[in-house]
Amino acid sequence: MGRTRRPSRQMLLVLEGLTANGRQWRHGYDLMKETGLLSGTLYPMLMRMTEQGLVEAKWQAPDKPGRPARHAYRLTAAGAAFALDLTGAQPSTPFGKGATT
C-alpha cells in the first residue's frame, strides 16, 4: 500500500472490526462502540482509508422513515490483504466471486 510506517493502534482496531465482518457493511456508530474510538478519530481515519483504497463507503437508505441516510463502510480486497498482512486476521466472508455488494 505504499505505507512504510507502522499503522496506529487505532487503525489496527478499525481493521480488526471490519475484518471480523468480512464483506458486511458496517456503520461508523457500530465501529465506534466496538473499537472505543471517538468520532473525531474514527471518521477521519475511515476517510483516509477510503482514499487509500483500503475501505469502501456508501450511503445507505434509512431503515425507518424519518431517519437520515447513513454512511456504511467495508474492507476492499486490498484492505483485507493489508489487514491480513498486519494482523493475520482473515475476513469471515471471502472477497471476489460470490461476495455480496
Describe what this molecule looks like in 3D.
43% of the residues lie in helices and 14% in strands. With 101 residues, it is α+β, with helices and mostly antiparallel strands. Helix 1 (9-19) crosses helix 4 (77-87). The two termini are 23 Å apart. Residues 93-101 have low confidence and may be disordered.
Question: Short description, anyone?
Answer:
The protein has 101 residues and is an alpha+beta fold.
Large-scale geometry: globular
Radius of gyration: 13 Å
Helix content: 40-55%
Report the span from N to C terminus.
Answer: 23 Å
Taking the sheet with the most strands, its summary is: 3 strands, antiparallel
How many helices does DSSP assign?
4
Mean pLDDT rating: 83
Sequence of strands across the biggest β-sheet? 1-3-2
SSE order in H/E notation? HEHHEEH
**Count of individual beta strands:** 3
**What percent of residues are in strands?**
5-15%
Computed structural class: alpha+beta
Low-confidence stretches: 93-101
